[in-house]
Design goal:
The complex is a heterodimer of chains A (243) and B (506). Chain A is an alpha/beta fold. Chain A has helices spanning 10-14, 17-28, 45-50, 53-66, 78-90, 95-107, 111-119, 138-143, 148-155, 178-181, 183-200, 210-222, 232-241; strands at residues 4-6, 72-75, 108-110, 131-134, 161-162, 204-207, 228-231. In chain A, 54% of the residues lie in helices and 10% in strands. The two termini of chain A are 31 Å apart. Mean pLDDT of chain B is 94; it is low at 1-6. Classes of the chains: A alpha/beta (243), B alpha/beta (506).
């Protein structure tokens, strides 16, 4: 029996549990029961990106322990999945942890990567009759290379009209602590991103990373724009329930 | 507007000035977008961009790994061609060598084509202090020289100015009102500079590439001014960074494919000049005397540093600036150094070997990786920005509040029980401030965030608090059998993985 584990990420755990629930229920319908190791905490990206690597190793070890005996690890964030690719460089001096890090790197997948690359599924039979635009998050698309997978999944959703987002590849301005430290630059970036979302006249903005979506949704709400913001897992789950 | 020597203290305050300058933001957006789209079209049309990009990277990696060898080869060949070679360890030394040559020639006037190294060396200032007129002849450089500013882009120095601002500057110089029409403005500058070219005692150029096998130097340009600078005056001085070397003319083919396409979206610049020594008796024109000043100024500090050596691979195309969403909003002066954008954010601290003074620039990035994606020689600038931040922390220069915060983060993230408790405390603590699942309060760390956004509240129940009931519910349902083909795919992937693992993704 394959052991497939959910790496929830702190944001989906604490703020957007509905994303994790959607993933669990969608995959259960395909015979894959995700298990959830409770010892996981955070991937350590906030401290890694800020230059605090000792602190990062502490967080990373909980992730390495949580998933050491899993066959596959699935995560609703390209950015947190990519963080795992940094683990080997963090543990070059700790051979035991380095082995775990290399093993985890090979078996960790972002949600759409797992569906398309591992399971070979691009059509979940969802129906979602709305005008939707898609923001490709930077780490997922540029660094992890997740570009075609979400588009393949979206193209098979019945009734969905996908409108291209102008300057889609531009960063939304989140960048973790960057949004706090350089708040005015980050604010200018998210403001422009939302201007582009508005241009599409989409009802729904969909993405693969709750950090970026939290940032964009926050600016939309600040400006009283009624665009609904969803993780692709939520959209697909809603789409299979109402078909 | 920031000027050389007159600088606001932090990148944050300098960025603040730019963010409030609508003219600047509009001008920078307009031109970076044009350049970025040009590059995209040119690299798509090329057809094998990724292969050539990898080839370019390999050439640069190889050259820098054997820089001593190729530099030596270049110097020997250039000397054999009759070029005077000088070495400068620091920017001050480079400036004083140039000044000595000028004094020896009793020069009163120098015409310059575009050279970022001369900006690094603050050469105009040095020459002018010695009573020698230094005139920039690249149109963009000429404009910012009139404005008394530093370049705000590696390739387009006056990118932050629109044509109305430029017309105003040039009208002052002309002593009459010039229409804000690019033909009129360029026409005025052409006429003005023609006189300067003819008067100048010395022509000063930069160097895009130096070819080791023949001791030649190569210049890429669009205006023909570098051609004038390197043919009209009797003496030529070329300033080059010590890393500008490539081994051969065959390698130049790869660079000539990558550089113009990445910089401006051109297949080739209007002029590409290869210069091998001073004028020979059969030559129609060219300088009688030629000097090349090879500048280190912090570059050799990167050699042998596994995290930063690749910085020396940079071919100064500016593609990372055009792709950068931060540069797009704040322009180049906010970076505070000679080099701006993502490459400047890494290069300036690295060359200065003083990350304490410059380290705040590394914070002005969301680490989105657009720079890496745009780079024609694949320099991982987004990783280098993190390395800079880490070195600052390791050297004990981390912000005190942030250091405490990160210690707290590690304490919570070390243990899932503490992590769950932190979420629970947050759920209780937020009750006073949450309205309709959001927090608008502008206080503490939320101040910056909530100036532009409404923060989300923590969920009433976190995923880990919901897990048991979700798991039980699914256990009670009829289990859907996994498709055989799916099962086989998964088993195959696990088998292929082997020990140690293979990477998927990029």
């Amino acid at each position: 029996m394959m052991k497939v584990s959910l790496f929830i990420t702190c944001l989906s755990d604490a703020i957007y549990p509905r994303v994790g629930e959607a993933m669990v229920r969608l995959l259960a319908a395909h015979g894959i029961r995700l298990e959830f190791p409770q010892v996981q905490t955070c991937c350590g990206q906030p401290s890694y990106n800020s230059g605090y690597w000792d602190e990062t190793r502490v967080a990373a070890k909980t992730i390495l322990e949580a998933f050491d005996d899993s066959d596959f690890v699935v995560c609703p964030s390209g950015s947190c999945t990519y963080m795992i690719h940094h683990y080997p460089e963090l543990f070059v001096d700790e051979p035991e942890w380095l082995d775990k890090a290399k093993r985890l790197e090979a078996k960790a997948y972002e949600f759409t990567q797992f569906l398309v690359q591992v399971l070979g599924i691009t059509d979940l039979g969802a129906h979602f009759p709305h005008k939707v635009t898609y923001h490709p998050s930077c780490h997922g698309s540029r660094l992890l290379g997740v570009k075609d997978e979400p588009l393949a999944l979206l193209s098979n959703v019945k009734g969905l009209e996908l409108v291209p987002l102008p300057h889609a590849e531009d960063c939304c301005g989140f960048g973790g602590t960057f949004a706090i430290k350089m708040s005015d630059i980050s604010g200018a970036m998210v403001t422009e991103k939302v201007d582009h979302v508005k241009e599409t006249q989409a009802e729904v903005l969909v993405g693969l990373d709750m950090a970026c979506l939290m940032n964009i949704a926050g600016n939309l709400r600040h400006r009283n724009e009624p665009v609904r913001v969803m993780h692709l897992a939520e959209l697909l789950y809603e789409g299979v329930q109402t078909r | 507007m920031s000027q050389p020597g007159v600088m606001d203290e932090t990148v944050k305050s300098r960025a603040g000035l730019a963010l409030n300058d609508d003219f600047l933001r509009k001008a920078v957006k307009f031109t970076t977008e044009r350049l970025r789209n040009g590059k995209k079209a040119a690299s798509e049309e090329h057809g094998n961009w990724e292969e050539w990009r990898e080839r370019g990277r390999q050439i640069r990696l190889h050259t820098i790994a054997h820089l001593d060898y190729y530099l030596n080869e270049f110097v020997n060949n250039a000397r054999a061609n009759g070029v005077h070679i000088h070495f400068a360890d620091t920017s001050a030394e480079a400036a004083s060598i140039a000044l000595d040559i000028a004094a020896h020639k009793q020069a009163t006037s120098v015409v310059k084509s575009k050279s970022m190294v001369s900006e690094e060396v603050h050469l105009n200032h040095v020459l002018e202090s010695a009573g020698i007129e230094a005139i920039e002849t690249d149109l963009g450089e000429y404009i910012i020289q009139l404005a008394g500013e530093a370049p705000s882009h590696i390739v387009i120095p006056a990118i932050h100015k629109n044509r109305y601002q430029i017309a105003e500057l040039l009208s002052k110089e002309a002593g009459e009102v010039l229409e804000p029409d690019t033909t009129v403005l360029a026409g005025f500058v052409r006429k003005k500079l023609r006189e300067k070219f003819l008067e100048a005692d010395i022509g000063l150029t930069g160097c895009n590439f130096a070819i080791a096998e023949t001791g030649s130097m190569v210049l890429f340009e669009n205006e023909g001014n570098a051609r004038m600078v390197s043919t009209v005056p009797k003496t030529q001085i070329t300033l080059m960074g010590m890393e500008r070397i490539i081994p051969s003319w065959a390698d130049l083919e790869v660079m000539a494919t990558l550089l113009p396409r990445s910089a401006t979206g051109q297949k080739l610049t209007m002029y590409m000049s290869g210069i091998t020594g001073p004028r020979r008796s059969a030559d129609a024109d060219g300088p009688d005397e030629m000097h090349i000043i090879i500048v280190d100024n912090g570059r050799s500090l990167q050699l042998g540093d596994p995290e930063f050596q690749e910085l020396l691979n940079c071919i100064r195309c500016g593609a990372c600036l055009n792709a950068c969403p931060v540069y797009r909003h704040i322009g180049g002066h906010a970076y505070g150094g000679t080099y701006s954008g993502p490459i400047g954010a890494v290069l300036t601290p690295a060359l200065n070997g003083n990350i304490e003074e410059w380290n705040d620039i590394a914070s002005a990035s969301s680490l989105c990786g657009a720079c890496y994606e745009a780079c024609p020689v694949k320099i991982p600038l987004h990783d280098m920005l993190v390395y800079l931040r880490r070195r600052k922390v390791e050297d004990g220069h981390g912000n005190k509040l942030e250091t405490m915060g990160m210690k707290g983060f590690a304490a919570v993230a070390a243990n899932s029980k503490r992590f769950a408790l932190a979420i629970r405390l947050g759920q209780i603590g937020q009750k006073a401030v949450v309205r309709n699942n959001g927090i608008s309060l502008k206080l503490g760390p939320l101040k910056g965030w909530n100036t532009y956004r409404v923060a989300p509240s923590l969920a009433k129940k976190s995923f880990r608090q919901q897990w048991n009931s979700l798991d039980q519910e699914l256990n009670q349902q009829q289990h859907t059998a996994m498709d055989t083909s799916v099962r086989e795919r998964m088993q195959q992937i696990v088998r292929d993985r082997g020990e140690g693992g293979s990477k998927h993704g990029k």
